[in-house]
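Hey,
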Amino acid sequence: VTSKLDWIKQSRDRITQRTRKPQLQMVSGETHSFLGESYHLDVITSPGRSRVCLENGAMCLFVPEGSDLLFRTRILDNWYRRQLMERIPQLLQKWQPVVGVQVSECRVKKMKTRWGSCNVVAKRIWLNLELAKRSLASLEYVLVHELVHLHERRHNDRFYAFLDQFLPQWRRFRAELRENALK
């Protein structure tokens, strides 16, 4: 313990300095992220189909009058999911030949503690919905990370050698994700 005292103090200080992000209320004026960029949310009550679009540097959320937090969150989450699912095929097309693996399926879901996961037997990758808020480079890193698991299940020297080979700057992308860690 004595030999690790400096590290323990630094870790403790880092943890205590973290501030919990306030719970979003899905109201106009809040800041929301998409692909690493910040947008002011503009909630617009409108009849018809609920939707999200980016206009003039704002994230516009069109919802019916009287919609609640849960409804607005679901609309925005569905939009984030569609945005990720539109980008995933291009990224798979780019990275599967590089890594030398083929996945059977790549899906998106909300995860509390992981950026991604991989079922090596089913060759199925899950990506965290929160990646829609991070940079495209972060999404790419997590996808490559999970693809590498099809070569090596564990986070061992062989796994990291593959990452170094396929994505030499992976440490920088991992650091960016860790700066804004999940809950």
